[in-house]
Amino acid sequence: MTTSRGALKVTDLKVHFGGKRSLFSKKASVVHAVDGVSFQIPKGKTLGIVGESGSGKSTTALAIMRLVEITSGSVSLGDTAISELEGDALRSARRKFQVIFQDPYSSLNPRLRAGAIVREPLDLMNIGTPQERKNRVDELFSQVGLRPEQQALFPHQFSGGQRQRLGFARALSTMPDLIICDEPVSALDVAIQAQILNLMTRLQQELGLTYLFISHDLGVVQHVCDEVAVMYLGQIVEQADRVNLFSNPQHPYTQALLAAVPTIRNGVAGRGRNRKSKALITGDPPSPINPPDGCRFAGRCPKFQSICRRVTPQMIVLDENHQVACHLLNG
User: Fold this and answer.
1) Alpha-carbon dihedral angle through residues 71, 72, 74, 75, given to the nearest 10 degrees
2) What are the angstrom distances between the C-alpha of 276 and each of 243, 250, 255, 331?
3) Whole-angstrom Cα distance, residue 144 to residue 137?
């Protein structure tokens, strides 16, 4: 089946690191960072990936960008099989997918002026004439809410929010189909976060952008994402549209994540509104070097059954917008 232009399709993606034997062991250590992840994002929509640190969110994003080696599986953007490209073909295709990083300062070259930073992808990919590149930079500064004269400034002369706008302008410069947002507002204060998220939403509506949004902040994800995938130890355990996931979470891990979100009711701070799980997550995740058999969340799950430690749960489709990998839903 041919995917529509701009649609991202990830199938059984695996990223394993290592494989070399240590001095003290005859067995090679392999880190299962991403272990069989599949999802699709329709053109013009936003998929959020959430989970604890170490769940594989950012590694999934880096693999899609081909910034880490893919062990197996496939990644396609429209009609382009990204996972199969190498050399010049991969460099040429990079104009179709760009990334916005977490830290809006360290991701910008401190020695370049702002205009040159935004223009750099156009120069590297030899897009347009010099005059067309200048016009494109002018247009981008206006689109992201920066003034023309700010092109002459260096990154340290911008505020955090302005630097992230600059990073967004750079990502937009090649007119990509997909933008991967890796914790794009976590380094900003709440008021500036709202401005950047509103900017992202407006530009998505105007330009038809497709976003993959990586975050640990469920409040931000609920604000900007059409669909949400929950990752745990390299695997997706639940995926649903935004309304279903936040109002009717089915996997115990998702329930615990939502229960841990701070809320304020009547001026009093408390925990999340999810009533299906009052117990918060305890303990640490298993090692990704030697992931356990069965469900990887079983060792921390308050509802686990004997089958959970023996058999890996398969995705169960609850409806067209909701799927869960959990044995509890089989009986």
Assistant:
1) -20
2) 16, 9, 7, 17
3) 11
In residues, how long is the chain?
Answer: 331
Q: Which two tokens stand for residue 248?
A: 């009717």
Residue 312 φ/ψ, nearest 5 degrees: -70, 125
How much is the pTM? 0.89
- Can you say how many angstroms the Cα of residue 105 is from the centroid of all Cα atoms in its chain? 19
3-state secondary structure 172-196: HCCCCCEEEEECCCCCCCHHHHHHH
DSSP result, 73-141 = EEEEETTEEGGG--HHHHHHHGGGEEEE-S-TTTTS-TTS-HHHHHHHHHHHTT-S-HHHHHHHHHHHH
- Site of tokens 């205009």: 115
Rounded-to-integer distance, Cα 53 and Cα 326, Å: 21
Pair type for strands 263-265 and 268-270: antiparallel
Structure tokens at 155: 């990154």
Strand, helix or coil for residue 288: coil
Distance of CA 328 to the CA centre of its chain: 28
Helix (H) or strand (E) holding 323: strand 322-325
Q: pLDDT tens across 60-86, in order? A: 999 999 999 999 999 999 999 999 999
Mean of pLDDT over the chain: 88
pLDDT-derived band at 101 (thresholds 50, 70, 90) equals confident
